[in-house]
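Hi V.,

You were right to ask for the full record rather than a summary. Here it is.
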Amino acid sequence: MLGNLATAYQHRDPAAYDTLFDLNYTGMTIDQSNPDSVKSYNFTKADEVEHIWGLYRSTAVVQLELTPRLIRYTDLGDPPGWTVIQNPIDKLLISDNPDSYTITRDKETIEFHFKPKTPDPSSPTDTTWTIGRWTEIR
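Predicted structure:
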């Protein structure tokens, strides 16, 4: 799943990226870079897909590197069957001269909450996953 996310993101592929998110996906970024003014941003699936469309229309260089060792766990606050992977992204770079945006694992915490999709016609014997929730704290 995360490999598909990295591929869709790096290739700026809105159609592939769209399939990765659950219809009821919610994302949140909490920006603590200014302790006097902590900001919170909420996102929907449509917002995520629009972000990829923006990259698709740009000349930006996009690089997304996953952490080599991913550890799954269960969040008791999630519905049954969901799974969580914390800090799966080692580095994200979006460079569109003169602007450059880089996220590294040591600068923020990211959690992906995955929702199982079973049965799935594309994989009748395996569980496939969609991103149900995403949280980023910097």
